[in-house]
């Protein structure tokens, strides 16, 4: 039994290309004590992966050259030397971009596929869902009646942010690329409005849709859109910096928000979040989200691409805005 | 009796020049009910004045063309139709850049020159002192043992921020322009270190002086220095955005902080402040500051330039970094 793996072959400059990766067929190592062999079913594709490919200090160590690319994964236990896991269990872990992963038992979490399908544990019930939940509620602190704007609104995190904001009694405006995505946000997810940044003037549209200004802005994209929203924030606004996908493939330096002095004028704040800080509370959040899903109040959507061999080009879909909902790579082709 | 006034003649592009101002000799209007005529002794010169000269929405309305330039002032009451003020009282107000001001009694505050000299009520005991006090303590929230960095450190606000941080048990590093200012911060005000941004590499110096990183950064300058500090912040750092004097005379757009994603990596926040929000608590703060001054724990320094006719060029000293401590314009020449 061979294991198809994607290794980081060299660090990208700008947008990653196929030659940043090396696809190899490896042997599966023997299990040590308290280890688990997982057959990976779905691999999570996240904007943050672009950052992990860079060298330098960040919130997490970079992936090393020659290492299997880091990724969250869900799959089925094939064999185990841990008393806590047995064949047939379904687990979440950080298995990486490969078909099979050997993990320490302590790094895995069991998942219950009677509550939700396997891939959903990479989306609403996984990191993106947790990011949305804690980022919005703890850092954004939306109050009933306030206006919440989210960028990357049709993505894995954005779709959840908007829906949780609605559940908290807010007016919610999403910013996304393309008519279809915008329609999806309003028609399917119940957003109060959506702005297609590819065809609309974002600043003008915000003025129309948020006449009293923006109380909470959940930013996944950075760049010009962050600057546009900064011009429309309200007194004591909270800006949650979750990511800056528009800047991750920059070869020049990141575009800083020129309008940041709006923070001063409006006594507003901008705060960065990293989901891992909330690990102790994932359980409560997942329970709440599963309840909302069961009640039909929170809709989940995964965008599934099949075949691990398509990993390099599938990852780029994130940066080209080609996915709606959570982008996952299904390891096999069926 | 004539009143020398400086009116805003036209809005500046970039650095203000003499022709942005019109110097006029006016009559002093009769007092209406509950009004006070004040002979202004000192005019406060503040970086914020540059912003008030611009058109457009901000935290305060712009000064109109043809209006007396807005400024905080201290002076002596000459005549009054208010029962609350009488000839010989000393008052703080927003008298503007002129020799005499007619103010509504409700817009003035009596000051006690037995506690501190008149001009100090424009500095440590005035807006700059309040800005430092509330900005640092309420928004920066420094804890004992933390490292506080302040830019514009030798200015009216910076000198007070640093000293209050020291009084709160912090390690304090100031960033200022020039050897003399840096020496003053360390030798006279008890800062733990100072960085001369004109001759040193700020990022390198921060690494040396703040080996564990920066917990609180009080920013008066913006621009490159904000970006340098962002690379050195510590987990959960607080950045207080008080001003951005390096950017006020820009003719191009403001330089946004390219390194703002350090907020994400470090789960840090950046928050804007406007001193006026604390008006209800000025009394407590002034009392505390006066106590510190009396105990010799807080040093005050004013940089006095004489002669209202020198207003235009004296204002520019702020942007050229020519003042140490609070810059005030003494109305008369003696």
TrEMBL record, chains A, B:
Chain ranges of the Enoyl reductase (ER) domain: 14-329
InterPro entries from the UniProt entry: ADH-like_C, ADH_N_2, ER, GroES-like_sf, MDR_fam, NAD(P)-bd_dom_sf
PANTHER family: PROSTAGLANDIN REDUCTASE, PROSTAGLANDIN REDUCTASE 1
The organism's taxonomic lineage, starting at the top: Bacteria, Pseudomonadati, Pseudomonadota, Gammaproteobacteria, Alteromonadales
EC code(s) of this entry: 1.-.-.-
Any Pfam family: ADH_zinc_N
Entry keywords, A to Z: Oxidoreductase
GO MF term list: oxidoreductase activity, acting on the CH-CH group of donors, NAD or NADP as acceptor
Entry protein name: NADP-dependent oxidoreductase YfmJ
UniProt source species: Paraglaciecola mesophila
């Amino acid at each position: 039994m061979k294991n198809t793996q994607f290794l980081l072959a060299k660090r990208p400059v700008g947008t990653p290309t196929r030659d940043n990766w090396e696809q190899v067929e490896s042997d599966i190592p023997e299990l040590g004590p308290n280890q688990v062999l997982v057959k990976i079913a779905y691999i999570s594709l996240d904007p943050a992966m672009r950052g992990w490919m860079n060298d330098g200090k960040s919130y997490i160590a970079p992936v090393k050259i020659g290492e299997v690319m880091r990724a969250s994964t869900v799959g089925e236990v094939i064999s185990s030397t841990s008393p806590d896991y047995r064949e047939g269990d379904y687990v979440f872990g950080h298995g990486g971009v490969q078909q099979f992963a050997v993990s320490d038992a302590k790094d895995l979490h069991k998942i219950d596929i009677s509550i939700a399908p396997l891939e959903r544990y990479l989306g609403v019930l996984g990191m993106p869902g947790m990011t949305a939940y804690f980022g919005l509620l703890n850092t954004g602190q939306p109050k009933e009646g306030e206006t919440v704007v989210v960028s990357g609104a049709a993505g894995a995190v954005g779709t959840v942010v908007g829906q949780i904001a609605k559940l908290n009694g807010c007016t919610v405006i999403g910013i996304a690329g393309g008519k279809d995505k915008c329609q999806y946000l309003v028609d399917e997810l119940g957003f109060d409005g959506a702005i297609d940044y590819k065809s609309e003037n974002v600043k003008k549209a915000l003025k129309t849709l948020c006449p009293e200004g923006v109380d909470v802005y959940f930013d996944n994209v950075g760049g010009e859109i962050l600057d546009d929203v900064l011009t429309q924030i309200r007194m004591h606004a909270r800006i949650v910096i979750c990511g800056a996908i528009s800047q991750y493939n920059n070869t020049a330096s990141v575009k800083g928000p020129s309008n940041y002095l709006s923070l001063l004028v409006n006594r507003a704040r901008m705060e960065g979040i990293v989901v891992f800080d909330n690990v102790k509370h994932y359980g409560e959040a997942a329970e709440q989200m599963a309840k909302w899903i069961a009640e039909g109040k929170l809709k989940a959507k995964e965008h599934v691409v099949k075949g691990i061999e398509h990993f390099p080009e599938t990852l780029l879909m994130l940066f080209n805005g080609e996915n709606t909902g959570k982008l996952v790579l299904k390891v096999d082709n069926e």
